[in-house]
Automatic annotation (TrEMBL):
Residue ranges constituting the Pyridoxamine 5'-phosphate oxidase N-terminal domain according to the UniProt record: 9-131
Protein name: Pyridoxamine 5'-phosphate oxidase N-terminal domain-containing protein
Key word Oxidoreductase present: yes
One Gene Ontology cellular component annotation held by this UniProt entry: cytosol
Amino acid sequence: MMALDVDDLSDEVLEFLRERHLATLTTLRTDGSPHVVAVGFSYDPDAKVARVITWATSQKAVNAGRMAAAGQRAAVSQVDGGRWLTLEGRVRLVTDPEQVRPGIEGYARRYREPKERDDRAVVEIDVDKILGRG
């Protein structure tokens, strides 16, 4: 396992975070067990924020909202052969349309334009730890 400096990511790591790869998001259920789901995500290296778009009533959104209130952490991980990265940090749920916009734009750049939803939400992780090999 290799810890990376979130303030000084290599060009290779940044490129890996821009390439189209699916990932997993890990949040916690009320009983403390992990809830792991496949997701697409975007990463903003300037803000050090990973964003997963979803809808407000999804289990990942419900978990993220509850975890944010408790100051808990979440993780998003992507793997491609021998390359892998896990981004960790405090989690929050964003539902305000203006604050949701960066998540939608990041997803559109990395994957494709998402379908319109009135109940769009974004799970945001304030990344303070990155492990892996990019």
